[in-house]
Design a protein that fits this description.
Mean pLDDT: 88
Distance between the termini: 48 Å
Low-confidence stretches: 596-601
Shape: elongated
Number of helices: 19
Radius of gyration: 33 Å
Structural class: alpha+beta
Helix content: 40-55%
Length: about 600
């Protein structure tokens, strides 16, 4: 199915003139070998971009095919200096061995032989005649090699004011060369992709470009299908014998995939994977909303969710299809981590549910917030209090990919997220909007069922979960302390939050006794604040009094999450009330009957 969809996209890209010629891919060109029209002389022109320059490098589609082994073959017209001018590869200490010199000469000999063979077959083209004259007159030997020319620098031939490798004759010759290298020995059969009889490939001729799939290790070209060991193949069959693909489909699907991987508007990279997406027919941007949730776009998605909460019903309104492919890297092999084939109408429904299920109420700004997916993933990592930010790379491996899958499929948050997040909150005592959003996602009982609702985005007075009630009580106790001792350096949150979210009974009981002293001071100095906070604290404890066992001694993992959620939502509600009171005009003595905190953690 995946290969079919890539071929469909290749046809569309080809009609829009975006697909490179067969077995071509974009390459940066560091040097141009400019041939004079008569073919007797040539100039080597430096096209390198200076270090630190913002200038774009010279780039063109050039011949390419995956090459490996001890004697990798050359490319036609465009290749490295090792092939074009026999520049040997230096060792790590800068010295050049005799073996490297011999290998460079061999490579140049094969490059020259291939180029001359092509020129001999295309003499009707003036540029081919120029190449033939240049090679037969030993023109490559007369080129002065600069000291700054590296063996890996790409050199492209130009003649008659044209790129020689882009001539139709060169494209046809290179395609034939690759087919001869990569096709099975005279093997023909039914192609798995197009369903037609044709010459079958022995191996995929084009790889995924180095760097197109993020990796923490060494970046290198990767094969989408690579079976070079009997243990890897079905019935010990190697390469593409169990995945018959014709030459045309093999080249087009890889060209399409490389095109998507190079397009910033159609890819999303994490630290160790990349997701590319496309649609059967052009559609407005959907993917961007995950990392840049603009209010207008999110409102449109949420409104469509409310109109059609059932994904199946939403699918009928927009049957266009959305595809997303997630790839990872294992040495030189691409690993398919996820594949999504979903109607666009259903996807809109899923994205609307994603934003509804994680939005949080910001009491400090008195508005609802939708968080970028990258921020949610980052918040699963470690908080650096001194730097005032999350530490990049400290989130669990693969959590961003898992959250992306949940967003696109309306699936649950990864099971490992909740215990890890609670451990992080206990360690750094950081509770903010992205972590609250993650808790809402993790506590949702069933995101796939449109009839099932998850935690409320703001304070829920009807919630009787013991963890939620304990979290609310802790937030009120902290507000009382802040109101009574505004200049305090270390709050009860700094001291007891981690213990309270795990074993609340002893902590809340002791803090309730301590709060009596704070309330006495408030009753004397700020009666309005005293009345508001005392009433709120009494109501919170009364909610727990309905339980037969009173305040829980220990909280389960989900209850700990509810504790944090109740704590944060109570703080948000308190600060929203405080902001509303200030807008109405504070009293002359500074009394604040709402008693909220004016700082976010």
């Amino acid at each position: 199915m995946l290969l079919h969809r890539l071929i469909e996209f290749a046809a569309r890209a080809e009609s829009e003139d975006r697909l490179p010629p067969a077995y071509y891919r974009p390459k940066n060109i560091q040097w141009v070998l400019l041939l004079e029209a008569d073919g007797t002389t040539a100039s080597l022109i430096d096209q390198r971009v200076p270090k630190g320059s913002k200038e774009e490098p010279l780039r063109t589609n050039a011949p390419y095919a995956y090459r490996s082994g001890r004697t990798p073959p050359p490319y036609l017209c465009v290749d490295t200096a090792e092939y074009v001018l026999a520049v040997p590869k230096a060792s790590s200490d800068g010295t050049v061995s005799e073996k490297a010199v011999i290998e460079a000469r061999r490579r140049r000999s094969e490059y020259e032989e291939m180029l001359l063979a092509w020129a001999e077959t295309a003499l009707d083209e003036p540029a081919a005649r120029t190449v033939r004259t240049f090679l037969t007159s030993e023109g490559l030997d007369r080129i002065q090699v600069p000291d700054t020319l590296a063996h890996s620098d790409n050199i492209a031939l130009m003649g008659h004011d044209r790129w020689i490798h882009l001539l139709p004759e060169a494209q046809e010759s290179w395609a034939a060369t690759v087919r001869a290298r990569k096709s099975a020995s005279g093997g023909t059969g039914l192609c798995l992709v197009c369903g037609r009889e044709g010459e079958l490939l022995d191996s995929i001729p084009e790889s995924l470009r180095s760097g197109s799939i993020p990796t923490t290790g060494r970046g290198r070209d990767a094969q989408l299908v690579s079976i070079n060991s009997a243990a890897q193949g079905r019935s010990s069959v190697l390469q593409l014998a169990n995945t018959p693909v014709c030459e045309r489909c093999g080249s087009r699907m890889m060209a399409a995939l490389n095109l998507l991987l190079a397009d910033r508007d159609h890819r999303r990279r994490t630290t160790d994977s990349v997701t590319v997406w496309w649609t059967r027919e052009p559609v407005d941007t959907l993917f961007e909303s995950l990392d840049d949730p603009k209010e207008e776009t999110v409102t449109r998605l949420v409104d469509s969710l409310h109109r059609d909460p059932d994904p199946v019903a939403a699918e009928r309104l927009d049957p266009n299809v959305y595809y997303a492919l997630t790839l990872g890297l294992n040495n030189a092999r691409a690993v398919i981590l996820d594949w999504l084939d979903i109607p666009v109408g259903r996807l809109r429904n899923h994205l609307g549910a994603w934003f509804e299920d994680h939005k949080v109420f910001d009491g400090w700004e008195t508005r609802y917030r939708y968080l970028p997916l990258w921020h949610l993933a980052l918040a699963a990592g470690r908080w650096d209090g001194k730097a005032g930010k999350y530490v990049s790379g400290s989130a669990p491996r693969g959590v961003e990919k898992d959250l992306l899958h949940a967003a696109l499929t309306r699936g649950p948050a990864p099971a490992r997220l909740l215990p890890h997040l609670l451990q992080r909150i206990r360690a750094d005592r950081r509770v903010d909007a992205p972590r609250t959003a993650l808790l809402r996602l993790a506590l949702h009982p069933n995101r796939r069922d449109p009839q099932v609702t998850g935690p409320a985005p703001d304070l829920d007075d009807t919630n009787r979960d013991p963890g939620y009630l304990c979290g609310r009580i802790f937030a009120v106790l902290e507000s009382i302390q802040r109101a009574a001792l505004p200049d305090i350096n270390t709050t009860i949150g700094d001291k007891y939050f981690g213990t309270a979210m795990t074993a609340p009974a002893a902590v809340l009981t002791n803090l309730r006794i301590t709060a009596n002293g704070h309330l006495k001071r408030l009753r004397r100095d700020r009666p309005g604040t005293y009345y508001a906070l005392n009433t709120r604290l009494s109501e919170a404890f009364a909610s727990l009094a309905d339980r037969t066992d009173g305040i829980p001694r220990l909280l389960t993992t989900p209850q700990q999450a509810w504790f944090v959620l109740g704590y944060e939502q109570q703080r948000a509600a308190d600060n929203a009330a405080r902001a509303a009171h200030r807008r109405q005009g504070a009293k002359p003595n500074g009394d604040d009957p709402e008693g909220g905190s004016n700082e976010a953690e």
